[in-house]
Amino acid sequence: MDAEGLERAIQGSVVVETDFAAALDRVLDNDVDGAVVDHHPSGFDGIAFLRAVRQDRPSFPVVLVPAVEDGSVARQAVEQNVTAYVPTSETDVLESVADQVEQHVMIRSEADSRVRMPISDRTAEEEQRLKERAMDEAPVGMAIADATLPDEPLIYVNDSFERITGFTKAETIGVNCRFLQGPDTEIEKTREIRDALDAAEPVSVELRNYHKDGTLFWNQLKITPIRNSAGEVTNYVAFQQDITERKEAEFQIERERERLQRLLDRINGLIGDVTEIVVTADSTADVYERAVDRIGSDDAISRAWIGEYDPGARLVRTRAGSDDAEIDLASPGAEPLATAIDEQSLARLDDSAVGPAGCRDGENGVVIPLTYRRTTYGVLAVYSHTQSFDEEETTVLQALGRSIGAAINDLLSKQTVTTDAVIEIGVEIHDNTPLTALAGEIGDDAVHENTLVRHDGDLLLLFEVDGDIDAVVTAAEGIPAVSEATVLASDDAPVVEVAVERPQFVSTLSEYGAQLATVEFDPNAVELRFSVATEQNGRAIVDELEDSYGAVELVAYHESDQPTQTRQGFRAAVEDELTDRQLTALQKAYVSGFFEWPRRSDGDQLAASMDVVPSTFYQHLRAAEKKLLTSFFEGS
């Protein structure tokens, strides 16, 4: 065979191998796209080569050219499934070989240039059987319809189609696949399918179909047209997957999203309204009534009530939303209320709960403590016929309970100033504090005379110095919590003002609206005297002081009546009128002995302590004096 002539004829690459084994290796290693082999009785055995190739590559293109025309050679070649046989009797053997190569080798090479498909190495029968098994056993439903027949009947369905739909092959072959449709199948989806088929285009939809037993399932359907060599649609192949579980999960997520959105809308309205109530209410009774009215007006709430907690008697007294009642927390059925109060956590109610707390007529109920920090002022009970009070609902209700509790605390804090009776408490803090450290450093060189709480919570301590004034200032400045030590008077009776950064006990008292009366201290302890409006707040303050300092001893506790205009009330009224600078000037003048005669300090020293010029100090002081006298003479 003329290799160079064949290469020119096919305009391709030709490799010549004369060794049998080397030629076979090239074929088996997939180094070539086809083979043209000679057959010569005394040379290259083309029939043996063909037989060897067919053992491993049944469909590999082999063109056989015998050197001598022999009928037995042709018969053997056909028996071994030769691709093409070119007898030597051809007028132009080279041209005939080139034609066969172009037809069987070149075209195949172009089709397989990207990915080699080993399935083509099988016999046609084996390849067909393998493809049929793959279709039959595919995990997705498959159906083929004949597009050339009226109503496009099914001509094939696989095993998964039977499993998914429940219809057997005998029931489906020869009929249109619309038998899967039913009452809830979406018309717009079926129209989308029909429009795509009419346009001979592929389509993919998710639609409701029905099993043979009438139950609904969600079908993910993909349909693709199959065309013949002329481009005409001859068949449609459809793939089905039962995606019911996925769709149900999607619907569940959507339902949950809608439920949460409705809940969010309700919550935003409820929280906004209750927040406005607690901010604008002028009494605890006002908070109770308005909060219960708003919560009870929610469509999902059947009723609500608020009870006030009496820690001394261990009672809950209803204050809004229910008839007057007292619930003894030690009585049977009161356990949920006791749990809510003692653990400051939500508790669930049932029909066995005592008195007004019990659920009725199939209600679900919860009780929420009204708390501020460590103090529980009462409980909020909420009931519903439609709500089970899940996590989202209870989280909101507990937040409302804390909001109402904070409002009650704020109102009771104001009550300390205006009430006719207060609880006066004295405690000793036996712990290492900045004040005990200060007393230890100063020693006998100075005597603590007075304490004022500045507007920012810092303490101003006034010391009359008996010893070395510089040593006192140096000792005070050595305490980390001391922000400043200032000499206010340095003549016959030296006075030093020491500013101590806001101690924890000032913050605690302020949180609960307590009025600090006196602060006394020595190197061993700090004694506080303060007043509060309620027993709950007093207990909470002592508990928090114990948490902050450890060793706290209660040394005084009694109720006392206050005059109509209390000292605290008058002071609060004056402080509201004064600016910060005016109040500071008045305080410094008072504690430094500026108003005594002879004066223990002068304006220049006080102005310097405020970092202002004397004229500015006197302006602040005179303005403060005028406001103070106005309140005294003209105030009610």
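the 2nd protein, sequnce then structure:
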Amino acid sequence: MTIKEQHELGKTLWRIADDLRGSMMADDFRDYMLSFLFLRYISDNYIEAARKELGGDYPDKAPEELKEHGVSTPLQLWYGENPADVLDFEKQMRRKVHYVIEPDYLWTNIYELARTQNDDLLKTLEKGFKYIENESFDRAFQGLFSEINLNSDKLGKNYDERNALLCKVITKIAEGIAQFSTDTDILGDAYEYLIGEFAAGSGQKAGEFYTPQQLSSILSGIVTLDTQDPKSGPKKKLENVLDFACGSGSLLLNVRHRMKANGGSIGKIYGQEKNITTYNLARMNMLLHGVKDSEFEIHHGDSLLNDWDMLNEMNPAKKVEFDAIVANPPFSYRWEPTEEMGKDFRFKNYGLAPKSAADFAFLLHGFHFLKQDGTMAIILPHGVLFRGGAEERIRTKLLKDGNIDAVIGLPANLFFSTGIPVCILVLKKCKKSDDVLFINASDKENFEKGKKQNKLRTKDIDKIIDTYKQRKEEERYSRPVSMDEIERNGYNLNISRYVSIAKEDVKIDLLQVNKKLIELEGKIADASERHNKFLAELGLPLLTKSKEGETKH
């Protein structure tokens, strides 16, 4: 399927969501819509694997034949005819696809219940969601559907109304998807599209869970370059990647996609998310994109409190470190650091970020867990570049220690949730260059202006990544800046101090201007003299000049 077709599928599903949600808030309906897409994906994947596993024993019968046996899916029929073999079959499925779904909970059966407006649809869905959370996967995904309240009054006043609406929603989704061919990535791409659309309609809430793909592409492009020598090209293997404020997981998936596109791989993906709804979205998003449950770990918790046992390890010998860290934490987040936190191993050498803005607290949290040869790229508000006080102290130490590798300024209005311009800081614990690369990509030539949001085009994204990779110098765009110059500027990283996008005023030569004016006056005088000769011959009043210089008859 082409990118155009993928977008068309996404738009089709978005139209269905917009038509069916009625008075329900977009955020509420999002959870239902995306959960059903998730169920469809893992069902299709499971059925395909089951067909391969059973081979000729798979009862690939027509719907009419299945109805004669009182079932709607081939697997329901096989389970009924081969009860003694079910356990061995499921063991094989766990080994090969890492999960199991009982036939009654497969999307095909759910859709059939919806299409026929069966009264048992809602009950079957409830049982199916619980089964997937607790029994489908080797590693329990408890609470995966915790935000899905199938008994909510938003779906209807009573069971019958709720069941009827779910029948309608599921039928429309199934019919919408049926118009398109499918492969392993299609629903994952549609899922990403819908997350973006719901984010666009969620105002200020959008920044909590979604990083626009254009920004994700920049971060993933940077951290997947060879961290030892950027000129040598992309890395072929990242042992592990972390996003400690992962939202829906789109940024982590972008890193994975970039690695795969370059012929590389990632050992394991790690994410942390405080919001329970977006935490569930992230787990679904991983599975929907074909990431096996053994290949990722998403933790529900607060990064600033460092409440993830895996990371909260004081023994240096057991310290977990990451090849690549990416993050888009909430901007200027207010937090309440305690005196005890000042002794925390993440902050003790730098001091605490101010209560009014936890930007540097997030940065230091991630930076602590970065490998010596790793790369970290984080999106932050511009204030971190020049604000004074505690932030100036942290920024100065990072600079003096040679940890800030690049500062990338981006245009305003790229996010759904805020119009402020943002920057990307690239950090390393051991960098080769002694300077700091500044990239000022905020000029109108380097993005496409939109009605609601501005957009970085593919060429704009590629230019940023290539400039970082080659550490190029380009007038009004980029420049490697020495630490001496940064020190002279008081460790202020305001990008325009180092790379200004202002164009020089055109110099005006007043002598030349005066010469041209004299020439023009002479031409005017000659023309007036010739004109008066014609007027005299015709017996008409001659042209004269007033004191003010106006020509009069």
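Residues 378 and 549 are 65 Å apart (CA to CA). The chain has three domains: 3-200, 204-498, 510-552.
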